[in-house]
Amino acid sequence: MIRPFMTELVLFVAPFVAYAIFLIATRAGVLDPKSWPLRTLFWLTGIALVLMIGSFVVIAHFAGNPTGSTYVPAHIQDGKFVPGQFK
Question: Around Cβ 44, how many Cβ atoms within 10 Å?
């Protein structure tokens, strides 16, 4: 559960970090409030939300199991543990 949360968190923070790196490269004050105007923050937030929604769509589309597959729960077979799987 932590991996999907961290993936979304990193995707949300990425535009802000990229802008901070840009400010460092241009020798502008990263901590200066004038370097972070409200319009720029709105754009960065919009880009972050697009990245997050895009990752939700990609994960929902490509993750998971094939359509029509059935889950066989974990069980003991011939004295050995067989983990659950989709067939």
Answer: 19
Predicted TM-score of the model (pTM): 0.70
Please give the Cα distance from 81 to 73 (Å, whole number). Answer: 11
CA distance 87 to 72: 7
| 23: its two tokens | 């400010």
Query: Measured between alpha carbons, how far is 40 from 53 in angstroms, rounded to an integer?
Result: 20
pLDDT tens digits for range 62-87? 877 777 888 899 999 999 999 998 88
Contact status, residue 11 vs residue 55, Cβ threshold 8 Å: yes
- Dihedral, CA of residue 65, residue 66, residue 71 and residue 77, to nearest 10: -90
Q: What 3-state DSSP class applies to 82? A: strand
